[in-house]
Structures are given as C-alpha cells and as structure tokens.
Amino acid sequence: MTIVHFLSVEILKCNQEWIKINCPPRYLVADVREFLRQSVWDLMSDSPKNIRDTLLPELDGKSHYMIAGFSCKSLSAENNERSAYGNCVVDGTGSTGTCFLFTLHPSAIPTPTHPHM
Fold first, then answer.
1. Fewer CB within a 10 Å sphere, N or C end of the chain?
2. In whole angstroms, what is the distance from residue 88 CA to residue 98 CA?
3. Whole-model pTM over 0.85
C-alpha cells in the first residue's frame, strides 16, 4: 500500500516545521480560511496554488482517507468573545466553525466572486 500525504493545514509555525521534516505533504497551507480565496499559499513550494485548477482536480477521486482535527479557538475558555461563537460549528463561523465546515464538506467552500480574493 502506498500512502501519499497530499495536503496539510497547520496554522502554528512550529507545527508547520515539524510536518515539513517528519511527514512532508505535497501541499502545506497555514490556514483553512485561505480556501475561501481563488488560491492558497503553499508553504512547501513557497508559492501560490490555484485551488480549483490545481489542488481540487489533483485530489478528486484519489483521496481514500482524511485525518482531520480542527481549531477550538472560537470556543476556547481563553477567548473573551467565545459567547458569540456558541453555535459556530453549526453556523460555520469563527475559526472553529470555518475549519470544521471545511473538514466535513470541502465542496461547501463558496466560489469567490470578488476579483481580489
């Protein structure tokens, strides 16, 4: 069995470095919210990658497993505004809800309409 680590999303720089060294993916993106734009910044190649023309077609039909975790920042006890995010997972808001929504439904990411996104 061949395992290909295709994509990782990690916001913490120290974790990004660990991923690069220990289990390098084809693409590494810092924040899942980058997927709301036309392109993401790939930390492996240090260059932009178009989502719909490059990443999604390359992944389509080839992914057998997804291992995912998601940010708990919006719900964290350290977040003074956490009461505003009580339904963030259901609503897909805040860093927690956005990350969770993408993890479950990558196709739910809206197609950007703004030319600078």
1. N
2. 8
3. no
